[in-house]
């Protein structure tokens, strides 16, 4: 069991190392990178918009429900909502969902290419398949996922305000005042650090499972499921690790 | 043994396999195979399902690593080449896969264009012209704008061939080019590969268990049996071969055995062939005597 883990981890590192060779043709790599940016970024924008608006709304309602006291000013609700969304919900929740959306897409796309010998066909042309197929996906994820997290943060806070105002919990002015109370830019830095770490996990783990599929169509499904599960677990572990590391003395 | 490289004016792009071994776990798939793929000819690797043909071909192009032995491309040791060297050599290799392996998000034209885009610095117009040339060669000009999902299996194979030859390779590999096709379409594909080989003086290696292919285009045939080279020769030798395993494999049905006898009679009518055959038989008996 432990040996299997180390051998997998070794293969994983070798895969990452194998990506870095001189591109055969820079323009083709760039084109592939752009395609992936569109696929990954625009492709998952819709789901990110929906979940972040609802996530913000629910956060406001539940925070208000827990803070029922006349001694606590209403604006505190907004402050709590802001910090919850920036610190945890926008990066982690969004990335868990993206693990499903992007992770399964990457794993099944590569798995299908492997099973139908397309990867072999590219390899035989004298192209570094790890460089051409994996690197653009990982680079595009590293660019687009943090961008999606930033969008999720803004939309979440906006959704929180809308829900709060609509249900009469908090007024527009109070919400805005709350948002500006004790704002720590460090929290944004923390959120971005997390989203880069998660983006790396979301793109590399499914790449690894998809690229190394062997067998038939059934294996593609299996690899895709397994990669999503492993990605989610690793995201949560990394979330805990980064919180302990970066927030412990904050 | 081939003396072709001694003939004047003949380029020779030979592939030699020297004592190749390959196992998966403790299952030995290739047990010490030594063979030569001759230049300018259609070389066939034949054998029953599971005899290691695909593994052998994948070893030859480096999609699998051999456990022992080495592979020579035209006096260049492929097995010992580093990554960059292999990449360089692979530009001279084209391969048609068993499943065609077309890129399913690209049209037929884009599929054939892909190697050109990656490696050649020509203008778009030059590249387009070359793509059309290749598609024309495989009779698929009309399907240029279609997606792989919209064309038939035989057409996919032809697109695969067009993509394999677009960079003018010296070596062409085809893994079961006519599996899953009707006899007529298979013949078209065989004919195409044969013509391309002779036109461009390529060294072609085909994996097959199609008897039509064996008889029609077998310039040089390697018969694999349980991971070993059992027999080597051409499609005329095969008619007269005494090798029991080969005969059981090739002439498996009553119909084919009869066809073989008819072909033997036909060939005996040809005087040159008769002489040659006599010589061969004598040489064979000499060898036996020497062994004794
Ligand atoms: N990646 C692999 N891992 C383990 N065993 C393999 C692998 N590839 C092939 N084999 C085994 O090697 C043996 C030879 O397989 P190969 O695909 O070369 O047969 P083949 O001669 O091409 O057969 P067919 O005519 O059916 O294509 C088979 O028994 C197969 O189980
Ligand atoms: Mg095979």
TrEMBL record, chain A:
Q: Give the record's GO CC terms.
A: ATP-binding cassette (ABC) transporter complex
Q: Pfam families, alphabetically?
A: MlaE (PF02405)
What stretches pass through the bilayer?
45-65, 85-107, 138-158, 186-208, 228-248
Q: Which GO terms describe its molecular function?
A: phospholipid transporter activity
Q: Does the keyword DNA repair apply?
A: no
- This protein's UniProt keywords: Membrane, Transmembrane, Transmembrane helix
Signal sequence interval, chain numbering: none
Is the keyword Transmembrane in the record?
A: yes
- Please give the PANTHER family that the UniProt record associates with this protein: ABC TRANSPORTER PERMEASE PROTEIN-RELATED, PROTEIN TRIGALACTOSYLDIACYLGLYCEROL 1, CHLOROPLASTIC
The protein in question is named Phospholipid/cholesterol/gamma-HCH transport system permease protein
The organism named in the record is Chitinophaga costaii
UniProtKB/TrEMBL annotation, chain B:
From the UniProt record, which GO molecular function terms apply? ATP binding; ATP hydrolysis activity
Q: Which UniProt keywords apply?
A: ATP-binding, Nucleotide-binding, Transport
Q: Pfam families this protein is in?
A: ABC_tran (PF00005)
Domain ABC transporter per the UniProt entry, residue ranges: 15-251
Q: Name the chain's protein.
A: Phospholipid/cholesterol/gamma-HCH transport system ATP-binding protein
Q: Which organism is it from?
A: Chitinophaga costaii
